[in-house]
Amino acid sequence: MTLQVIEYEEIDEKKIEKIVKNHQKAKKIFKKLEQFAQDNENRFLIYSRSGRLKSQNYVGIIETKSGFVVEILPKTAKSDNKEASKSILLKMLRFYDKKFHHFQLASLKTKKLPLYEIFISMFLDEMDMIRKRGIKHDYIIKEQNQKFLKGKLKLNDHIRQNFAHQERFFVAFDEYLPNRVENKILKTTLLKLAKITKSISNQQRIREFLFVLDEVEPITHNIAHAFSRIKIDRTMEYYANALAWAKLFLMEKSFTSYKGDSIAFALLFDMNKVFERYVGRLLKKQCKNVKLQHSRYCLFDEDCSRFRLKPDIVINDGEIIADTKWKIIQSEQDISQIDLYQIFAYAAKYKNCKKVLLIYPKINDDLRIVNHFSIRKQKNILFEICFVDLQKPQICNEHICAPIRK
Length: 406
Description:
By secondary structure, the protein is of the alpha+beta class. The chain has 4 domains: 1-81 and 255-269, no CATH class; 98-136 and 181-253, no CATH class; 138-177, no CATH class; 287-400, no CATH class. The chain has helices at residues 13-20, 23-39, 82-93, 115-133, 155-161, 181-196, 200-212, 223-228, 240-250, 271-286, 337-349, 397-400; strands spanning 2-6, 10-11, 45-49, 52-55, 58-63, 69-73, 138-146, 152-153, 169-177, 265-270, 290-292, 313-315, 320-324, 355-361, 372-376, 381-388. The strands form 4 sheets. Strands 11-12-13-14-16-15 form a 6-stranded mixed beta sheet, with helices on both faces. The protein has a 4-stranded mixed beta sheet with strand order 1-6-5-10. The longest helix has 19 residues, at 115-133.
């Protein structure tokens, strides 16, 4: 049972009731979402008005303990096209975290799969890569009472257990098996996801991987201790992404931390960070000499331990400086003075700065904003506003990468 909403769209009991078909159940689910909002001080879900919640700046999934899922998609266009929004989010996530780097969007029919199923599919893609490159084995010490001598005789145990059975030997020996902790974690994850997924394709793939790991024992307790025993060396690098997904599913570690136990699970993304990394990494492909999260300067020269400046994008050693902002801009009044002050501070500190930009997502095609100003004529610093059309993933490099005229 999934309620799919777009960022800024309201969530209330009526919308939940349409899905669960039960008024009392809908009321309980909404109360849990309200508690989640309160526990996290309205960071993820905020009160829009009495009896209604809405998401702002955070997208992803929130699952209640009853199994009801709220799927929140980013606002990427004036009209709320949920499937287009989901497709854009998945494209942006490929630049967000290494877990998404190998994900092939074309391999999924996103119109039919909820986000949770897509994330499960991403984990299964990593499992497929492990299977192709080979399941790692290790020498495991086994202790058994056998009819023949193999390995090392454990004398004390042998005397204690075989006093009346002189035909047996209690021995310890090494055996080359896949039953190492990394594979145990992966199998435990597969068993958990097998109970959750509703996708026939994901169910089939999980069964295939469980067959491959048939000799591996699942972890029944102390998952955290198992993760502490993981050893990723050069030969195990191709396991890293799958184990990162496993940690997320088994230990319920979201990309954004949250508080409280009113819900079962949440997988949430800060769209400010998603948009920042998306724009930054695309610009690294389109422009020369691009640095992200540059932190050379501080606001005050006397004390650089505090108030360090960290612009999102620095081009040509500070000639062009840009900050990304995930905000819906409908008019000039929506541009925050705080954002302007921040970008002006960068212009003041970077001595060879000639242009500063604020980059926003393009939501309204009809929006017309005068976006070209001079900050200080004697230093010839220009200020511009740039809107990125997420439907067509091309950064407006005529505003950003273009050389500055002197």
